[in-house]
Amino acid sequence: MFISYTKCLSCSQMKMVDISKKIVSHRVAEASGTITLKPTTVEIIRKRKVEKGDPLSAAQIAGLLAAKKTWEMIPMCHNIPLGSVEVRCELREDSVVVVSRVKAVYKTGVEMEALVACSIALLTIWDMVKQYEKDELGQYPETKIEDVRIVMKQKERVDQK
Fold first, then answer.
1. Which of 88, 115, 147, 153 is the most buried (most CB within 10 A)?
2. CA atoms of 46 and 41, how far apart (whole Å)
3. Do 110 and 116 meet the contact criterion of CB atoms below 8 Å apart?
4. How sure is the predictor about 14, in pLDDT bands with cuts at 50, 70 and 90?
5. Which range marks the domain in which residue 154 is found?
6. Which residue, 107, 53, 100, is CA-closest to 78?
7. Domain at 34, CATH number
8. Residue in 102, 135, 131, 95 with CA at minimum distance from that of residue 116
9. Residue 98 and residue 151: Cα distance in Å, rounded?
10. φ, ψ dihedrals at 36, nearest 5°
11. Per the domain annotation, does 8 fall within a domain?
């Protein structure tokens, strides 16, 4: 169901949250998500026979790059100096689970960066294996991305270390 707005908010009502007075903290966020694939596609990945190359390696690189550009994609996000980004992919029987972990020492959290890294990694896998997922009508009846969420976040003041 689509929601129709009769009165749109003006740009003057939009603003980035002021974090200038917040305390710098060690921040960590971990996101995970799953792409469900045909078991035959998972086997093609496992045997390293994907025509475009290794989708798991491509997903790791794509997720890392995406985390670094989160502030450019989501309008109200701050440009956070990231300390590290890790993207791990776990091949299962009929899916791939992606886990991204982002760290920074800054005034605001890195949850969005972790979610973007995970989401883009999952989309990259889909792109690389889509030819194996299509049915006879060119549709994707079994392929789905789901359960993208923050599984962990931590915040610790810098002076507590």
1. 115
2. 9
3. no
4. confident
5. 24-160
6. 107
7. 3.30.70.640
8. 102
9. 12
10. -90, 130
11. no
Q: What distance in Å separates the CA atoms of residue 15 and residue 148, rounded to the nearest whole number?
A: 26
Residue that has been written with the tokens 């002076």 in this structure: 159
What is the band of 7 on the pLDDT scale with cuts at 50, 70, 90? low
Amino acid, single-letter form, for residue 22: K
Catalytic residue among 18, 54, 94, 127: 127
**Domain-embedded: residue 116:** yes
How is residue 41 written in tokens?
Answer: 């596609």
Work out the end-to-end distance of the chain between its first and last CA atoms, rounded to an integer number of angstroms: 49
Domain count, the chain: 1
Active site residue 94: no
Does residue 143 belong to any structural domain of this protein?
Answer: yes
Q: Can you tell me which residue has the tokens 């997903």?
A: 59
Closest C-alpha to 45, from 138, 125, 159: 125
- Is the residue at 112 inside a domain? yes
Confidence class of residue 130 from pLDDT cuts 50, 70 and 90? Answer: very high
Rounded-to-integer distance, Cα 23 and Cα 120, Å: 30
Q: Which long-range CB contacts under 8 A does 18-22 form with residues at least 24 apart?
A: 19/78, 19/107, 19/108, 20/107, 22/107, 22/108
The angle, 0 to 180 degrees and rounded to 10, between the axes of the packed helices 39-46 and 111-133 is 100
| 54 vs 6: CA distance, rounded Å | 47
